[in-house]
Amino acid sequence: MRAMLLEQTGLLRDSPEPLRLVERPDPSPAADELLIRVSACGVCHTELDEIEGRMPPRLPVILGHQAVGSVLAMGKDAAGFTIGERVGVAWIFSACGLCGYCRRGDENLCAQFQATGRDVHGGYAELMTVSAAFAHRIPGVFTDAEAAPLLCAGAIGYRSLRLTGLQDGGILGLTGFGASAHLVAKLVRHRFPAARLFVFARSGKERDFALELGAEWAGDTGEQPPERLDAVIDTTPAWTPVVEALRRLKPGGRLVINAIRKEDSDKKALLRLHYPEHLWLEKEIKSVANVSRYDVREFLRLAAEAGIKPDIEEYALEDANRALLELKEKHIRGAKVLRMC
């Protein structure tokens, strides 16, 4: 099979083609696994964190944790799917199922959590395997390319929105407007039709896109919005938006940081934190850690019910490096997806 392989980490500015197109032996499913012929795989900012070493993967590794394809073969104990059925594989590859976190439904916090495309090979390939228990049915309303970003950008956006505690009629801020945020904007319109949406983004194109999707206001990261916010979801890799978001919250407001890692380039922005202005009056900060199977499956259900589909840009598998570099340089409108053929 063909795959895009990461063999070492390093900054993209020093090595703009970190992935190498290789031929590898076809994988075989273990007893509880499905063998999937991958047709599409989303490109995620988390992969930049892996490539650049902020979240080092197990090398060498095939990246990709938003994979969609069809079941090609099944292990002898795999159940719940049929040959030819469409399935998706998300960031959560496995969890122990036995610890307190798993038993209470927080498998995303499991100490034995394994991530697709980090701890095991992922979907930047023509074939991959996954436990049947961690595969997800794809609703028929989505094409493979449409479904791929829903598995991470959508699911983590859904989890982030739940963690804000937003009520209908409230004011939500989105900092950054890439794959996850644009799906959150669409979900907000469905679940909270009276909510007001303010978007902060450095790119004028992203701000225009946010207004197209129903944002009431869109401005640069440092601009003052028309009103203070009940909640903010930060999807950026930087620290400045965190500081600015805290300043714009209402008393009792909550900032949800939807980022698996932050870059160090503007870490000094944290020195601007001023307790009375940024943190006092019961403001809260909550991070988002991974996703659970529930997040993925519930968002797929909601998205199918509401007709929520991502705006996508498609690339051939061998153009994965170009897609990643464009993502790094913030050439974004919606989500980027690799096609295997």
From TrEMBL:
Keywords: Metal-binding, Oxidoreductase, Zinc. Its cofactor is Zn(2+). Pfam families: ADH_N. Residues 31-139 form the Alcohol dehydrogenase-like N-terminal domain. GO terms for cellular component: cytoplasm. The keyword Zinc applies. Gene3D superfamilies: Medium-chain alcohol dehydrogenases, catalytic domain (3.90.180.10), NAD(P)-binding Rossmann-like Domain (3.40.50.720). InterPro entries: ADH-like_N, ADH_Zn_typ-2, GroES-like_sf, NAD(P)-bd_dom_sf. GO terms for molecular function: alcohol dehydrogenase (NAD+) activity; metal ion binding. Belongs to the zinc-containing alcohol dehydrogenase family. This is Zinc-dependent alcohol dehydrogenase family protein. The lineage of its organism: Bacteria, Pseudomonadati, Pseudomonadota, Gammaproteobacteria, Methylococcales.
